[in-house]
Each structure stands twice: as C-alpha cells, then as structure tokens.
C-alpha cells in the first residue's frame, strides 16, 4: 500500500511524519513541488491545473491515495483534483475546531499563508465553530518560503516568528492554530516565544486518522493485510526542483539516519 503526499516544499513532511508514526506499514511517496513554489503566489486556476498534473503523476506511480498536505492547495484546488482522479484524496484544513475547544480565554489566532487567510473555506470553518471566541486571522507571505530555504534562512524565520508572536501577546492570544503545514516544522520557536500559556494546534494527527479511514473503506482486504504485516514501509522523497532541494528535505524527516530513495521528477 503506497500513499502519495504532496506539498509545495518541506511543510507536508509534518503530515508524512505523523502518517509514518501511526501507520508505519504504509509505503510513502513524498513530492516537494519546489519547482512550482511558492504556492501562495499562484492564482487559483494555476493551482488547480498543477494539482491535476500532480494527480496524474501519482496515478503513474500507482499510489492508493493522495494526501494534499498543504493548506493553500487544499482550499484552492482539492475539489478540482478530486474531479480529475479516481484515487481517494485527503486534504488538510486549519484545525480551528479543536482550537476553539482548547481556548481558555477564547482568543484564537489563526496563522496562515495569504491565500489560506483570505479563503472562503477558512471563514466558513471559523463561522461554524467559533461560538463566542475572538478570532484573529494572521498571515505571512514569507515564512513558509523561508522554512523551505533552511538552514540559511534560520535567522529570517526566527525574526518573522518573533514579530508575529509579539502581536499575539499584545492581543492576549491563548490558542494558536498553525494553518500551514510548514509552520509546525518550527513549532519550537513559537513555543519559545509564546510560552506554555498558549496552546498550539496543528492538523497532522487528524489527517493521519482520516487517511486510515479512507484506505480501510476503499481497500479493506489490502489494509487488513498491511496492518498485520511486520514490514516497515519505504519512504521515497521526490522534488520537482533540484538535488539541493532533496538534501534540504532531510532536515525535517522524522528518521534522518534512515536510507531514503531520492529523485528529481518532472510533473
């Protein structure tokens, strides 16, 4: 059982790591679409056409399902992908529902890329679950891109997070939703700046659980065999960019010492 995981860069590795931790029997094929990054600069139409091409790539790779491990791509193009592939498609949404349940003072910050921050889907989720919570939508045009440029960008990443967190503390935020899969990669910086009084929520475990449900529904016999197998799945890392991009991905995988199959692909 092989699952394809897509993000514009390294961010989706937070999702891949969670899937591997919970479902180590799955083979995972990760595509960092660096050659088309950053997604936040693209129009909805561009993202839709790109995800159709990525779906075709994963079909050629014979995956059993696709995980769109990118908030921007999910809100802009996941419906188009689903309409153009026969594979189950699992997306990632800002974890606002658990955030509103966690909020002590009910002051919630949702930190996203500009595309996600302005998306109708995010506003629908907030309207559905916020009740009497106070919500602050925040965005950064550079943070995800700088995380992909790690480690040279470490200073810029820290500076951006310190600036964002200063505003959150000024607004007395008690719960932070990391609404871009890149951001949990540097969660330790947010913890350092905000302290233990602020809960930080991200969606990786929820996506992993949803993937398992979808696979069991679509492939009950294969999943039963896979779950009871003692074999650990293989993890392949791909990029649409360069060898340098492949090496950067190793900064964020949960098992940096294992052997990964790495390749540059054309999408």
From TrEMBL:
Q: What SUPFAM superfamilies does this protein map onto?
A: Aspartate/glutamate racemase
Q: Give the active-site positions.
A: 70 (proton donor/acceptor), 180 (proton donor/acceptor)
Output the GO biological process annotations, alphabetical, semicolon-separated.
Answer: cell wall organization; peptidoglycan biosynthetic process; regulation of cell shape
Top EC class, one word:
isomerase
Per UniProt, where does substrate bind?
Answer: 7-8, 39-40, 71-72, 181-182
Q: In which pathway does it act?
A: Cell wall biogenesis; peptidoglycan biosynthesis
Provide the E.C. number(s) assigned to this enzyme: 5.1.1.3
Task: Mark the transmembrane ranges.
Answer: none
Catalytic reaction list? L-glutamate = D-glutamate
Q: Name one GO molecular function term.
A: glutamate racemase activity
Q: Which domain of life is it from?
A: Bacteria
Report keywords, A-Z: Cell shape, Cell wall biogenesis/degradation, Isomerase, Peptidoglycan synthesis
This chain's function reads: Provides the (R)-glutamate required for cell wall biosynthesis.
Q: Which family does it belong to?
A: Belongs to the aspartate/glutamate racemases family.
Question: What protein name is recorded for this chain?
Answer: Glutamate racemase
Organism name? Marinomonas aquiplantarum
Q: What is the lineage of its organism?
A: Bacteria, Pseudomonadati, Pseudomonadota, Gammaproteobacteria, Oceanospirillales
């Amino acid at each position: 059982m092989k699952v394809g995981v897509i993000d514009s860069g390294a961010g989706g590795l937070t999702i891949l790591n969670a899937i591997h931790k919970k479902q180590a029997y799955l083979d995972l094929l990760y595509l960092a679409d660096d050659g088309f990054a950053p997604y936040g600069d693209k129009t909805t139409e561009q993202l839709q056409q790109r995800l159709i091409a990525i779906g075709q790539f994963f079909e050629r790779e014979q995956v059993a399902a696709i995980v769109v491990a990118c908030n921007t791509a999910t809100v802009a193009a996941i419906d188009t992908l689903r309409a153009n592939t026969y594979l189950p498609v699992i997306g990632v949404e800002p974890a606002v529902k658990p955030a509103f349940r966690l909020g002590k003072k009910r002051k919630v910050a949702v930190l996203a890329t500009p595309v996600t921050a302005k998306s109708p889907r995010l506003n629908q989720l907030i309207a559905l679950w916020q009740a009497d919570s106070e919500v602050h939508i925040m965005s950064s045009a550079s943070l995800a891109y700088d995380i992909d440029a790690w480690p040279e960008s470490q200073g810029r990443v820290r500076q951006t997070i310190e600036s964002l967190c200063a505003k959150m503390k000024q607004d007395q935020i008690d719960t932070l939703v990391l609404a871009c899969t890149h951001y949990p990669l540097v969660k330790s910086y947010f913890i350092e700046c905000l302290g233990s009084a602020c809960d930080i929520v991200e969606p990786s475990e929820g996506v992993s659980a949803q993937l398992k449900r979808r696979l069991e529904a679509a492939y009950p016999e294969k999943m039963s065999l896979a779950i009871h197998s003692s074999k650990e799945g293989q993890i392949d890392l791909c990029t649409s960019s360069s060898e340098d991009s492949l090496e950067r991905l190793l900064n964020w995988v949960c098992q940096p010492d294992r052997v990964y199959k790495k390749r540059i692909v054309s999408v």
